[in-house]
Amino acid sequence: MERYTEAKYRTLHEANENELERLRGKSAESPWKPAYHIHPQYGLMNDPNGLAYFNGEFQVFYQWYPFGAIHGMKHWAHVKSADLVNWERLPAALVPVEDYESHGAYSGASLEVDGKLYLYYTGNIKYSAEERSANQCLAIMDQEGKIQKYKNNPIIEGVPQGYTGHVRDPKVFEKNGRYYMLLGAQRENMTGAIIVYESDNAIDWSFKGELNLQIDFPESVYMLECPDYFELDGKDVLIFSPQGLKAEGHDYHNLYNVMYAVGHLDVEALSFVPEHFQELEKGFDFYAPQTFAGKHNERLLFSWAGMGEIDYPSDKEDWAHCLSIPRELGLVDGKLVQKPSVMLKQLRAKSETNSVTIEAGSVMIDEGIGQHELEFNFDTENADVFGIELFASEKEGLVLEFDCSSQAVRLNREKFEWAFGGEYGFVRSSGLKIGTSVKVQVFVDHSIAEIFVNDGEAVFTARVFPENGSNGVKLFTDQKMTCSYVKHELKQGITR
């Protein structure tokens, strides 16, 4: 069948003379470029891929379209770090030049096998704007860092019977002496699923069947993307990204959402028995997370700090999106919590401790900060409503509000309507047991804020594109209260 052609389906090798230099130059001076978040120098990034601690370094790959802030021919870009803080940009790891990946090297994960890093990914194939297929492919990274595509790709050709061409995002793991591959999939009746392949050698794969998640999804869920699996504190954990969920209470207000389930996986019986499941993150810009084992076998997570189908102000500068900071995962009372990796403390250049008493109203505690970390401890005994306003100025502000009466925390970016429009709403929220004190840890990096409440009980990621001068930090309350806080100025971690 003839392949679909369109201008956006070209690779780095097809760049015009000086085109990449012009793109790099256009976006280089953007005031919204992060200082320590992984981001593209130019073009569009999305899902983190192939995450690993391999050969003494952290390897991070990500989806990348070089030629502008649109979803076109996806490559795998590559950065590495010895410490999760200082990142080195490397040449593109995967450029989709082969027939089995004719319309992009889509997302996937990695697994160390016999001293080499196996990089699994989906080769996207398009026959028309609507009709597609998918191949599962392999590239291998050796101890010297050289990456080569497997000579007998694809390792899985096409999709199994009963599923559409939307089969992608391989997650491979070893369990009980065998290798298993989870894939996000769409059934022919347009509902979402996770399917499983198995292998003796991590190269030759056979279809095993569909995983029974024992979660009652509504029929509106038409795809389960980006499956991730790991063991944590004796429990099995699945993370996946359902598309088509409807908003309900505090949950699922984004265009696309992320869930996790804690329970027991019987991969031989194709069964996952959940003990608990819920939405993973409460912010506006969090999707397609992937986890991996860190240097000390801690479970680390990166996510795409963006959202599909939404225009961002940086698009006009021909770059878009970034990754979250690395987060360490843990289980508390059977629920998954996310905390900033302790290795991020290396970013701190200068720290200052303060305390403030706030009368009913608000007080500005800092101005003009572009990249920083803030740690707050609120004494909530008297207040009913209190909170923090980031990126604050006379016109703008990202408002984190705690409401003791409703036992909830809300993040509001209505003052940035100019940047995002209102189609997907301005408020994200979470239920929260608010006691006599509340802890908040915030990472701000020019155009992104990541907020961790009560050691990761609730987490919000939000892209914010402030105008010049909108960098203040304000505290507010409806009753007199005290707040102690620490401000950390943070260093540069990656080339802008």
From TrEMBL:
SMART domains according to UniProt: Glyco_32 (SM00640)
Keywords: Carbohydrate metabolism, Cytoplasm, Glycosidase, Hydrolase
Residues in Glycosyl hydrolase family 32 C-terminal domain copies: 345-480
Pfam families attached to this UniProt entry: Glyco_hydro_32C, Glyco_hydro_32N
Metabolic or biological pathway: Glycan biosynthesis; sucrose metabolism
Residues in Glycosyl hydrolase family 32 N-terminal domain copies: 37-340
Biological processes per GO annotation: sucrose metabolic process
Keyword check for Cytoplasm: yes
Family membership noted in the UniProt record: Belongs to the glycosyl hydrolase 32 family.
Protein name stated in the entry: Sucrose-6-phosphate hydrolase
Organism this protein belongs to: Cytobacillus firmus DS1
Lineage: Bacteria, Bacillati, Bacillota, Bacilli, Bacillales
